[in-house]
Design brief:
This protein is of the alpha+beta class. It is 39% helix and 18% strand. It folds into 2 domains: 87 residues, Phosphorylase Kinase, domain 1; 163 residues, Aminoglycoside 3'-phosphotransferase, Chain: A, domain 2, CATH 3.90.1200.10.
Length: 266
């Protein structure tokens, strides 16, 4: 069956940037794009991702990813070109060689992952992100005061998971900056805590790893508690809506375990 990447109109759209196409290798994982493929081509290779050009969350996210890329290099592969027509919005990144990080206890990747999250926390907030306040957890916060504890002027990545933390021979990358926001800097290390718990760490172990991030060390414990409670509520709602999505169930369990550990069970 023909794929969007191999369709003639798609090839015509990207050819000015790729030259002649030799081979396309679809990648595994990822939920934010319809096309996610490494393209071997005359001017590449490139990692190509695309979404339909119609209003909605995925369109907005790919626009954010294009706009944020200059501010997040070299932690993210460089965006080399973008293309758009009535059907598609397409981004073309440097194709990097790497594998998904292993978050499990005892993994040799753990220091690299923590270091990468800490480096994200050291990035300056670009002007474009000032208009992207973090609000995803607001409706799950206990009240406006608890939601206010999640405010801040740090650049947030938030999409921390093993597939987005790529480990190469000599470096590591945080890929898929689909929804960067402005908020409290501890939120990224807190997301890492939940991911580590989901990978088999105890809450104590996960928090000890997060202590390698300056934003976690400097965080107000009350703010972390507010986030842990809101996050547990959010994932419970999401998992209840999609009971067949096992990854949501795993995140709900991990978030609840962390909230219990911090004594803020919902």
């Amino acid at each position: 069956m023909d794929t969007p990447l191999l369709a003639a109109d798609f090839q015509e759209l990207i050819r000015p940037h790729t030259g002649e196409l030799a081979r396309a290798r679809p990648t595994t994982g990822g939920h934010s794009s319809d096309v996610a493929t490494v393209v071997e081509c005359e001017k590449g290779p490139f990692f190509v991702k695309a979404v339909p050009n119609r209003p909605g969350g995925r369109h907005d996210s790919i626009v954010r990813e294009r706009l944020i890329n200059p501010a997040v290099r070299p932690l993210s592969p460089a965006l080399r070109w973008h293309a758009e027509n009535d059907l598609w919005v397409v981004l073309g990144f440097d194709a990097v060689e790497g594998r998904a990080a292993d978050f499990s206890p005892g993994s040799p990747d753990l220091p690299t992952v923590v270091g990468l999250v800490n480096r994200i926390g050291e990035l300056d907030l670009p002007e474009v992100a000032r208009e992207w306040p973090e609000t995803r957890w607001d409706r799950f916060a206990g009240d406006e005061g608890q939601a206010a504890l999640l405010r801040g002027d740090d650049l947030l990545y938030t999409d921390i998971n093993p597939g987005n933390m790529m480990i190469g021979k000599h470096t590591a990358w945080a890929v898929d900056w689909s929804w960067p926001t402005r908020g409290a800097g501890f939120i990224d290390p807190a997301c890492l805590v939940v991911q580590f718990i989901a990978a088999g760490h105890s809450p104590e172990s996960a928090e000890s790893w997060a202590s390698g991030c300056a934003a976690w060390v400097d965080a107000d414990p009350k703010a972390v508690d507010a986030f842990a409670r809101a996050n547990a509520l959010m994932y419970r709602v999401f998992a209840d809506r999609k009971p067949d999505a096992s990854w949501l169930g795993a995140m709900a369990d991990a978030s609840r375990a962390w909230a219990d550990h911090r004594g803020v069970s919902t």
